[in-house]
Specification:
Length: 143
């Protein structure tokens, strides 16, 4: 089973999955996961678990936070953030004109947020699996 791998390999696989989850390339997450599974020897369970933190309940907060972070990184005023309404979807050119304003902040912010989340996830998962695979750590910490 995949979770019998070393704590470092499990943590790295999870971190790659988390980075993919924050990827701004919407709709390509599972394709990226399966390509990485085929090309590299990663923990399948860990990378899928990391990638699936992006789901219908989390996608809006993840991408909104990433886009706002991108505005901050690019030092663009948040006032430039366009207000979308349902009427914007009636004209595709109008929609794309508004979307262009947030494209770079979205791409950069989600990528940076993905790197941060992946690093945090790596250390947390590695810590958990080191404890799980080395019971002597539990005994030392309880003393």
């Amino acid at each position: 089973m995949d979770l019998d791998d070393s704590p470092g390999k499990i943590a790295l696989s999870f971190a790659i999955g988390v980075f993919i989850a924050f990827s701004p390339l919407l709709g390509t997450h599972l394709i990226m996961v399966f390509m990485i599974i085929l090309i590299f020897r990663v923990s399948k369970v860990a990378i899928l678990t990391g990638a699936l933190i992006n789901n219908p309940w989390t996608i809006v907060p993840m991408y909104t936070t990433g886009t706002f972070l991108g505005f901050i990184i690019l030092r663009q005023p948040l006032a430039k953030f366009p207000k979308f309404s349902l009427s914007d979807f009636s004209s595709l050119p109008d929609f794309f004109d508004k979307f262009k304003i947030i494209l770079y902040p979205y791409l950069i912010g989600c990528t940076v947020l993905g790197l941060i989340a992946a690093m945090i996830g790596f250390f947390i998962v590695r810590f958990i699996f080191r404890k799980k695979q080395n019971p002597s750590l539990k005994k030392r910490e309880s003393l």
